[in-house]
Amino acid sequence: MIRAILFDLDDTLMDHTAAMHAAVEEWLPGGHHKRFAEIERKWFAAYERGEVTHQGQRVERCREFLGRPEMTEQEALAEYAKYLAAYEKHWCSVDGAQDVLQHVLNLGLIVGVLTNGAREMQEAKLRAGGLDLPGVELFPTVEMGHPKPHPEAYLEACRHLRVDPGATLMVGDSVANDVEGARAAGLKALHFDRAGNGDIAALSELTAMDFV
Fold it and tell me: Which residues are within 8 A (CB) of 96 and not within 5 positions of it... i.e. 6 or more apart?
């Protein structure tokens, strides 16, 4: 029986893509969001592989996006802060996310959010989206030293929740991070397919028996 659910945050509970597109346009107008998204994926994947630090991937994203490889770390982070300020203004939850969290809490399930983002920003996103509900615990993998899809990320979250991995369901938009990685660690997993118009609100139709 499923006793706990771990949700991904960005593009599962919070609409990261929409906020990112709007922020890039505000930071550097001209329709550059597709290129920014590609660079973001490239460097965040490098972070997930352990090739750069979380802060380091921000530095490299900024250098590559602006075409200024000579920028110092301090210069890159100062410039990237302009993007972050715009990004924060556009944070919003995915439709149905708050209802889903409340529903699974009402079912008596243990609920956590497992994210590769840093705590300060991800806590602020939960507040902005109205998702900081009592009983929802945030697990930023930056603090764990093992980002998804490393097995230790899921296992440490399960240890904190005091639940067996086999009794835990991971829900998220990334096949690699939220499905394959979770299953390799012994968890069950559900892919939230936003590209295929999958609706997270459908989880609100589940009953306690559906988790058996």
Answer: 199, 200, 201, 203, 204
